[in-house]
Amino acid sequence: MRVRAITFAMPIKIRRATESDIPELSRLVAALAAWEQSLDPRVQFDWDGIRAAPNWMKLVLNRAHHAVWVADTGIDARLVGHLWIRLKHQSDGALPQSIGYISQAFMDEAFRGRGLMKPMLEAAYEWFRDAGITVVTLSVLHRNWVGATAWHRLGFSDWREERRMDLKPRPK
To answer: What's residue 7's pLDDT?
Structure first.
């Protein structure tokens, strides 16, 4: 599997995440959760689980079917964005049986629109190709117009829509 670092004049470096990135990755995971909650009051997170990100992120970084790229400022170990991908096996008969899935992607607001996600995606696509993947999917919150627009610009098209209904409690 080829892994290369991409450096910007900013100087932002795109590279694979390491365990030393876990504190900053945890901050980015929490920032994404807060962003999504600000967009839609139906979005809820278990903040104890979010605060536990340093524990589960270590597991993610050590799983062969997951990969994470980061945008690194090179200053005080500060990360300004991340892309977390994984292999997803479809056991419902859908083809292809294994697809690539973008689990999370987030860029600090001050760094959005600078083209930093594109090189992370290019590295992710190579990782997927090395794993024999031909289809990549993702889910974006319906009210996240910034994210939806960015994904369209990056080549993703509408494919499937997810619906939600909150069940009312049973009548007493």
So the answer is: 44
